[in-house]
Each structure stands twice: as C-alpha cells, then as structure tokens.
Amino acid sequence: MAAREPTGLRELTSLLGEGSSFEGKLLFEGRVRIDGKFRGEIASDDVLVIGETAEVDATIEVGTLIVLGGTLRGEVRAQKTVELHAPARVFGNITAPQLVIDRGVHFEGQSRRSAQLGAPLEALEAAMPEEPTEASTVDEPASSEP
C-alpha cells in the first residue's frame, strides 16, 4: 500500500534539516520544509511543511501549512489551508479558511475559520467574527467498533 502524500510535497525549494537550528525571520517562495529547530517569524504566500522532527516556535503567515509531526508553538494564519497530521503537537491559535486535523494530533488552542480560500489576509481579518471558536484536543483515536 502506498504511503499517503499530504498536499504540497511535490518539490521543495528549501530545507532546514534535522539537527539544524535557526532564529530570525524566514521569507520564502515555493515549498519549504522544516525538520530542525526554528524560532521567529515565517511569511510566504506558498507552502510551509513542518516535519516529524521539527520544533517550531513562530508566528506564521503562509498560503498553506502542513504539519506532518513535530511540535509547533505560535500563532498561525493561512490563506488557503492548514493540515495537521499525527503525531503533530500544536500549541497556539490557527486562522484559516480550511483546517484538517487527523486523529492522534494534539492541538491546544483556538481555531478561526476565515471567510474564503485564497483571500488576502487583510480581507480575512475583516471578515472574521469577534468571538473565536474553541478547539479541542484530539489525542486518542476514536473507536470504530459498534
């Protein structure tokens, strides 16, 4: 059986590999993957992938965020979608038009649904309701037995 390939993993523009660490501001075009440690700010209209061994503490504003594992702490805003795949651990608030959370993901924070896919961030902020929706923690897979 072929492994499921999450959205946006076709070709990477850049990689911060396992064992590497960076502190500062990351601006990029294309697809970037982080498997090491990152602390700071990340901004792009494109795809950010956070890998299984990553430890990220950042304010993130991207087109699409894919968290394949690892730990993410911080505020996230996405223009299109955020995907959280097990065994990811996410601590912070997420604002996006579309949020996908797999079973086994640990998410502590709030999620807000933006108005539409692909809208500029300023338009999304203007369209958001005042009160955020509380998010739940999805630690244990639900039993599929009757």
How many beta-strand runs? 14
Radius of gyration of CA atoms, rounded to a whole number: 15 Å
Provide the helix percentage: under 10%
Mean pLDDT: 82
Write out key terms for the chains shown.
5% helix, mainly beta, 1 helix, disordered N terminus, single chain, 14-stranded mixed β-sheet, 146 residues
Can you put this structure into words, describing what you see?
This protein has about 150 residues and is mainly beta. It has a domain at about 15-110. Helices cover about 5% and strands about 45% of the residues. It has 1 helix and 14 strands, in the order βββββββββββββαβ. Strands 1, 2, 3, 4, 5, 6, 7, 8, 9, 10, 11, 12, 13 and 14 form a 14-stranded mixed β-sheet that branches. The longest helix has 7 residues, at about 120-125.
Lay out the secondary structure.
Elements: E1 14-16, E2 21-27, E3 31-34, E4 37-43, E5 47-50, E6 55-67, E7 71-73, E8 76-84, E9 89-91, E10 94-96, E11 98-101, E12 106-108, E13 110-113, H1 121-127, E14 133-134
Parallel strand pairs: 1-3, 2-4, 3-5, 4-6, 5-6, 6-7, 6-8, 7-9, 8-10, 8-11, 9-12, 10-13
Antiparallel strand pairs: 13-14
Task: Summarize it.
The protein has a domain at 14-112.
